[in-house]
């Protein structure tokens, strides 16, 4: 049986993986495969714990980038709004997309969202097509 982990263990694992302050990191995630977390009161709290861990390791000079794809625009013809269309790539990417200071690229289907020191320059000139 796997023991639940907490924020401290996640931070340590990220550092052991070689992630350092000031890095720019692209993350694709499947949080449900990560195991149980200590200290969360509901499943909706889990993405925030991972976001806090990445922010702690990357520091104020680092940047986190996640895919925030919205394939329903192309597949189903749903309207796309840069600010409002939710990510269809999971709870973690949606948490990053809605975090204060995040920046999303203009691509209507394969957008990326960046959070951190390089968010603006990384998302500024991404093509819309």
Summarize the structure.
The chain has 129 residues and is of the alpha+beta class. It is 32% helix and 12% strand.
Could you describe the 3D structure shown?
- The chain has 5 helices and 4 strands, in the order αβαβααββα.
- Helix 2 links the parallel strand 1 and strand 2.
- Helix 1 packs across helix 2.
- It is an alpha+beta fold and about 130 residues long.
- The chain has a 4-stranded mixed β-sheet.
Number of H/I helices: 5
Low-confidence segments, given as residue ranges, are none
Count all strands and give the number: 4
Query: What oligomeric arrangement do these chains adopt?
Result: single chain
Q: Per DSSP, what share of the residues sits in E-state strands of 2 or more residues?
A: 5-15%
Per the principal axes of the C-alpha atoms, what is the gross shape? Answer: globular
Radius of gyration (Å): 15 Å
Instruction: Give the helix level as a range of percent.
Output: 25-40%
- How does the helix and strand content classify structurally? alpha+beta
Straight-line N-to-C gap: 47 Å
Mean pLDDT: 91
Q: Please give the order of strands in the largest beta sheet.
A: 1-2-4-3
H-E string? HEHEHHEEH
| Main sheet: strands, sense, barrel | 4 strands, mixed
